[in-house]
Amino acid sequence: MGIVDKVIAAVTPPESEKSRREAREKALGLATPGSWLAQVLDHHMQIEAAFEQVRMAADPGGRRAAQQRLATLLTGHSMAEEAVLYPAMALNGEKTSSEAAYVEQSAAKVQIAALDDLDPTSQDYLDKLEHVRGAVAHHVYEEEDSRFPTLLEKAGVEKNEMLAMRYREECERYFGDAPD
User: Fold this and answer.
1) Are 75 and 27 in contact (CB under 8 A)?
2) What is 45-92 written as a DSSP string?
3) What is the DSSP letter of 124?
4) Residues 108 and 132 sit within 8 Å (Cβ to Cβ)
5) 3-state class of 13 per DSSP?
6) In whole angstroms, what is the distance from residue 31 CA to residue 38 CA?
7) Distance CA 57, CA 49 (A)
8) What is the dihedral of CA 116, 68, 133, 150, to 10 degrees?
9) Could you read off the pLDDT of 98-153 as tens digits, one per residue?
10) What is the mean pLDDT of the chain?
């Protein structure tokens, strides 16, 4: 584990699976069809599945292809959050949470790129992948447990409708359509 990995591990304490499930259930209970939160939660689940696809790939080519899909999902999702939701958080009194979210996503992008320098059949690759998955899982937990429920409450109905439209537009800009 490199120095960056050690720093990230030190500042991202793992939550229990139970805590993650409870946060997800809470967020799902707050999300309405078509809302920005529903879109975000859908992306979170796609990203989780994409990590598993990378891990389970049967050969180096398949692993690299799955890694590219994961990187595309993470980047498109993060760009939409960074362009729409994090500014809304900052403008609604949650500047510290917004700044933390930006930093976490930047670190994840660097770590995903670091996988390109590793042999996809090596244990180092799998260790790095698991480290990134853990950091992303922590980030998702923070969003689902507190950051996004707080934004949803503070933003109000009209602002939440605008955020849903803007989030969808940003996703379409990156993905061309839905990130299926």
Assistant:
1) no
2) HHHHHHHHHHHH-SSHHHHHHHHHHHHHHHHHHHHHIIIIIHHHHHHT
3) H
4) yes
5) coil
6) 5
7) 12
8) 130
9) 999 999 999 999 999 999 999 999 999 999 999 999 999 999 999 999 999 999 99
10) 92
